[in-house]
Amino acid sequence: MPVVKYPRAREPLWCEWDRKAQKCGLRHTVYAVNGDQYTGEWLDNLKHGKGTQVWKRTGAIYSGDWKFGKRDGYGSYSIPDPVTKEYKRVYTGWWKNDKKCGHGMTFYPGGGHYEGEWSGGQRSGWGRMYYQDGSIYEGQWLEDRPGGLGMLRLPNENRYEGNWKDGKKHGPGKFFYLDKGQLFEGIWAADIPKCGILIDFGR
Prior knowledge:
Keywords: Cytoplasmic vesicle, Repeat. This is MORN repeat-containing protein 3. It holds the Pfam family MORN. InterPro entries: MORN, MORN3. The protein is mainly β. The protein has a single domain, classed as Sandwich (lipopolysaccharide transport protein A fold), CATH 2.60.450. The protein is 4% helix and 62% strand. A hairpin with a 5-residue loop joins strand 7 (99-107) and strand 8. 22% of the residues are buried.
């Protein structure tokens, strides 16, 4: 009985090339068309695992965890100083879906820095902000501004303890004038004291 041999079906060349081009596992530096470069781990052609990304346009560097092409996990983000070209850390902490989320620390250009909780790329939750002028705010944050209970200590040691809304003193609070030995206790609205009592102490 004769045996009929059919030619084996070959897959098109583009299928083989595509399979070889799929990035998976640890890879050397991969350059994007716009000049950005990434060195690290991949999964199904997406950055996934540990890796370092350098953006050509800004010179910024992110080094840390990735998940399906987005910054997710723990990592640090740095940018070069325009004058000295040395890298200055901007943010170190947790990320989720390419945005700051969880606990982290940010350093601002003027010299201030924030340490605390983030959500969706904004300061949200509990945190402490050190301002450039020497003031310190410690308390609750909402949508990148003080909101809830918090304390602001000024450079001259005077301080406000109480409620905040949209970054301003709002609601019941106490202002300690330590330089004058006085305490104002009352109600605030949009940074303005509306009513209350002024007490002398420590004299």
